[in-house]
Amino acid sequence: PVGDREAVTRVLGSQLQESELQAKLTVQEALELYAAFYPRPADWRALAERLGLTSMLKKRFGVLSGGQKQRLFIALALIGNPRVVVLDELTTGLDPRARRDTWEIVEDVRASGVTVLLVTHFMEEAQRLCDRIALIDNGRITALDTPHGLIARSAGATVISFTPSGPLDDEELAALPALTSVEHKNGRITLSGTDETVNAVIALLVRRHLTAHQLRITDATLDDAFLNLTGATS
């Protein structure tokens, strides 16, 4: 990057965590201005259409909502036709609807063949958008894998909770494969284990001709993986 800054600029686009434009600059003016920075820019009109900006081309930056500003910054990051785009804390401060709309835009960008490097603290966002995830703790990469791979490596438990239609023997429950814990509360049973445990519980209920009321199965999440793999407690 230091040796050939211009070459890097041609292939790299970025959206920073904190970005601002002049409040009186319109969306169209911003797109035209940034397009002028590149020898072979993308068609800003097509980009505006793709990102849902066409109806707000005459709007000034200062009156845009948070979600609209993020759409514009994504467009500005893509206007140089980059092969790689860095999106830094893309949805921080957005409401749930705007956040999900932005996720759909990122999915479209990725599907177009652009490599997306996403920086985020939202595990749900990373799990939905990323093919590979690097977990960073205190400035160091502690794990690098697919979302599913990280969850599997974290040894996070699958939890199955239900109220049986009849009594279950504690010895039968204790004999379930890969079981790590059993809890009884107000007639409800909560078990921790793996997918193997879940299958064994279902088989046990069938053998005993019992029904599992209010059955709930919860898998480990990327949040669990982060906490387990980094040793974080808060």
From TrEMBL:
Identify the Pfam families for this entry: ABC_tran
Q: Does the keyword Nucleotide-binding apply?
A: yes
CC per GO annotation: plasma membrane
Query: Which part of the chain is the ABC transporter domain?
Result: 6-91
> What PANTHER family does its record include?
ABC TRANSPORTER ATP-BINDING PROTEIN
Instruction: Report what the protein is called.
Output: ABC transporter ATP-binding protein
Please give the Gene Ontology molecular function terms for this protein: ATP binding; ATP hydrolysis activity
| Gene Ontology terms describing biological process | response to antibiotic
Q: Which domain of life is it from?
A: Bacteria
UniProt xrefs under SUPFAM superfamilies: P-loop containing nucleoside triphosphate hydrolases
Q: How does it sit in the membrane?
A: Peripheral membrane protein
Q: Where in the cell is it found?
A: Cell membrane
| Keyword list, A-Z | Antibiotic resistance, ATP-binding, Nucleotide-binding, Transport
Organism encoding this protein? Kribbella albertanoniae
